[in-house]
Amino acid sequence: MATGEFDLIGQYFTHKSVSRDDVIAGIGDDCAILSVPAGKQLVVTTDTMVRGIHFLPDANPADVAHKLVAVNISDIAAMGGQPAWASLALTLPDYDHAWLAAFSDCLHQQLHRYGVSLIGGDTTKGEMTLTLTLQGFVDQGQALRRQGAQIGDLIYCSGTIGDANAGLKLLIDADNRTALNVEKHALAAMDEAALTDSERAFLIARHQRPTARVATGQVLAGIANSCIDLSDGLASDLQHILKASSCARGTTLSANIELTALPLSSPLQTYISKALWAQYALAGGDDYELLFTVSAENKTKLEQAMADTDLPCTQVGVIIATDIIDTETDDSETAGSQIHYYNNQQLTTLTLQGWDHFNEQ
Amino acid sequence: MATGEFDLIGQYFTHKSVSRDDVIAGIGDDCAILSVPAGKQLVVTTDTMVRGIHFLPDANPADVAHKLVAVNISDIAAMGGQPAWASLALTLPDYDHAWLAAFSDCLHQQLHRYGVSLIGGDTTKGEMTLTLTLQGFVDQGQALRRQGAQIGDLIYCSGTIGDANAGLKLLIDADNRTALNVEKHALAAMDEAALTDSERAFLIARHQRPTARVATGQVLAGIANSCIDLSDGLASDLQHILKASSCARGTTLSANIELTALPLSSPLQTYISKALWAQYALAGGDDYELLFTVSAENKTKLEQAMADTDLPCTQVGVIIATDIIDTETDDSETAGSQIHYYNNQQLTTLTLQGWDHFNEQ
């Protein structure tokens, strides 16, 4: 039984949306009509998830919806913003009622959780590709940027890191999958047998059902100098802060990271051998924690503010000036930004394996 | 040679964007940061184009970019809005420099044409799927809605209609394509030989390179009672106005359309037999003209305002109350909305063949 595109939107997406006073018109016209509160600026982000690339082909549709929302809201959180409105572009190979019901139920549940109204979108036919555009507010001039890091800033991250990559590894091993791009993400030397059921579930949930750190981001506005969310892994995302801040300052910034300070969950420490902790914590993506820098003067202010949230933040390093010897390369704006890794205060060398969709082959 | 995702964004999309004072931060952070002018509301729309569904698999990438922008801006135009910002989600099967260069050149050219800044997006790997989210402004409370049609309103459309469908038919015939979904759009009884080269080029351009009617939409704000852009065809899109307006009024509206009034271009009249004119004009999609209704009192005001634009608008019908005999069905909010077709003022019966992605099989 075929059902039309417009029925599809109506049946699954129109009637369950969060009601907000600033949505003058939501789904159902050529555009949504929206009111931005006085004194606020808009923050806007777009993320796409493709089946077989960003999630396993037979992934639970509720997990897919959960992650699609979290990944986008996480970008708003990284700006210190308050999420408000979402547009969903849904490309699907067929009209699968069960899939759509499970997907839309969880999508609405997650949008409700963050107070976000679904204001529009598009449904088309093709390989499963899901794009969400999220809009939120920040107080005028208060957005957290990547580019604000200063020499001497302390580097923090929220929560624990590396869990999502371990969760993905557990899922891949469970089905002995070999044909997936995502497998490259997974590394050897695991001890699944050592995990309890709840530890295993914790790690998998960290991969499938991340939480966007909205409250933490809002606390950081006015305290942190720079911020980014951890989607690609700390090593890669810290480079974005270094590059953006170096470019904004006109001088090259680097960073020192203390490996023993990296916040690892207990299940992760049980599951993977110590030799791989740094790989998971630094190159494992998809944790959606916040990585941010704070001036030394603001350290007490940060600690006081964090006491009001239920998410610990951990200092993992410091921003430094780049040693003159590192800048001999003529590689334009990013010349010389480096991350130095310390193990119990001893400089050490790491080889990390990263992740980039267009570098796979 | 593989090149990373971030290089891709930088190389093709970051540096060519339109500069606007209301873009505090564009591409390069977790979110764009934007300022909405005082007294304005936001209008937001999202459209997806999938290769093989919305454009031919070997379509010129510049044509694809042109249409992607026009289709989205057309939704802003239909609200009477001024387009401002765009986010691009680009899913591509591989890293094809020639395709990306041609696509991004035309994308930027089109965004410049409409004064729109590219503020962000995402690039992912998968079957070619392009989603653009467009944002624009309307004066507070002045957005054109689908839901404002009143009994007695005159129904107008801008430009000429049916051309895009004829252009698609010409493209399909040129390659004797048979395996495409899009072929369903095309009908028999054509006389390609009768067309001059420039007439043929006109029809194909109307399919590949539509123009969003931004200036017309802005003129209509304050004059028209309702408006929609013609993406699915007049018959289908007029139903959206009737349904939305019936729902908003709490009474069922219908429409009379005079077939001899439908504005057909000279190339279209040359190319297709007269028996198919109504099919093309009413069920041919992708023209991206504006369909709108105006009260009889505003007719003179409309004609004066239209004299200042270079796009003619043509009255094609009138909004009527639904005859009581039509409302016997109990089909909820849309009960009884009907379109009656007249041929030289004689009521006539038409069977139109429509278009819906999820009704193909």
Measured by residues with Cβ under 8 Å of the partner chain's Cβ, the largest interface is:
A-B, 74 and 73 residues
Q: What is the average per-residue confidence, as pLDDT of chain A, rounded to a whole number?
A: 87
Query: Strand arrangement, largest sheet of chain A?
Result: 8-10-7-11-9-12-13
Q: Which CATH top level class of the largest domain in chain A fits? A: Alpha Beta
What's the total count of β strands of chain A?
Answer: 13
Report on the biggest sheet of chain A.
Answer: 7 strands, mixed
Q: Class by helix and strand content of chain A? A: alpha+beta
The CATH topology of the largest domain in chain A turns out to be Phosphoribosyl-aminoimidazole Synthetase, Chain A, domain 2
Q: What is the strand content of chain A?
A: 15-25%
Q: What is the ordering of alpha helices and beta strands of chain A?
A: HEEEHEHEEEHHHEHEHHEHEEE
- What would you call the shape of chain A? globular
Number of helices of chain A: 10
Mind telling me which CATH architecture of the largest domain in chain A this is? Alpha-Beta Complex
C-alpha-based Rg of chain A, rounded: 21 Å
Distance between the first and last residues' Cα of chain A: 40 Å
Helix percent band of chain A: 25-40%
Oligomer: homodimer
- In the CATH hierarchy, what is the superfamily of the largest domain in chain A? PurM-like C-terminal domain
How many discrete structural domains of chain A? 2
List low-pLDDT spans of chain A. 178-186, 330-334, 355-361
